[in-house]
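Figure S4 source data
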Amino acid sequence: MEITVCRAADVVLLDRYIGSPGVASSHARRFGCQEAGEGTYLVAWAEGRPVGHAEVRWGGCDAPEVRAARPGCPEINGLAVWPEELRSRGTGSALIRAAEELARERGRPVIGLGVDEANTRAAALYARLGYRPLIPYVNCWSYEDADGVTHEQADPCTFLVKDLAPDPEAQLEPGHEARC
């Protein structure tokens, strides 16, 4: 498996292999945000096809209560692995680690993500990876179906955060060893 930053040509493949709700491509929207400098859209690849994605939103979560609780915290958004039989094989963890590394490279001390209260499987993964609850919020989003009808969604979620302490071994000067 390989994790890359999304390219324009990848959007068509993402739409083909990992569809998004509605007629407008969420992949194209996320790529557009990347092109505008608002985020970085990561794609996981296996055997030449996309099998997962995650967007790092550098401006943070849209929910005002999350922004107030942790200003400046970038958000991992839209994390998905598809098809379902590829889940629990490390793809989601690899996408999260790649997002964390991007945040470290930008000097961000923390990163966060939202988890739907009903998604206990994802919550368990995030806890194993060191994410801790910050604040409950309602994730509001919408999509337009093929008939042009807009569907509004409101999902109760918890925003989780992880401190991104630098890797202590990466901080060592040449000739020095890490001590326990």
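Figure S5 source data
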Amino acid sequence: MTWVQPELLIAESAIDQLKRAASLSHPLETGGILIGVHAVQQPWATMAVELPSSSRGRAHYHLPGGATRPAVLITRAIDPRLGYIGDWHSHPADTPPSRTDLASLRLISYLHPRLPNPTLLVLRRTFEDEYELDARRITAVNPMRCAIRVTGDLPRPTTHYPLEPNE
């Protein structure tokens, strides 16, 4: 069996949303959820929704309880093809996902199994005050680094929806 690196497709406009939210929040962490579709068995993040949290600081961010589903439903009202792709948050320093981040990814993947599993995206602030994207997804039992492929936006909806929505 040949190993294939998992991949995250992400719209350039979603990256802009992520970087803007992280920059405005700096030096505190912020985060939210990735919204999109699955295209050819790969998650395609087309939007990044920031979910403000009172539980955040320089070294932590926790999604507010009960905020994910309403945010997904709001985006589905705009475009029924859209659904949950995963979680994201910023790191004010150039540090990879923490053990806590990876444990949360394992828990989400265990509690809500789907193929492919949800993606965790961490924006790492570099020394040049830019952000690097670091995506991970559970494959088999371990979090694996995802290759990131930048795309354009999702085409406008038509009367039929050929892409699979996510729950």
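The domain at 7-151 is CATH 3.40.140.10 (Cytidine Deaminase; domain 2). The beta strands are 7-11, 31-39, 42-50, 83-91, 119-125, 131-139, 142-145, 147-151.
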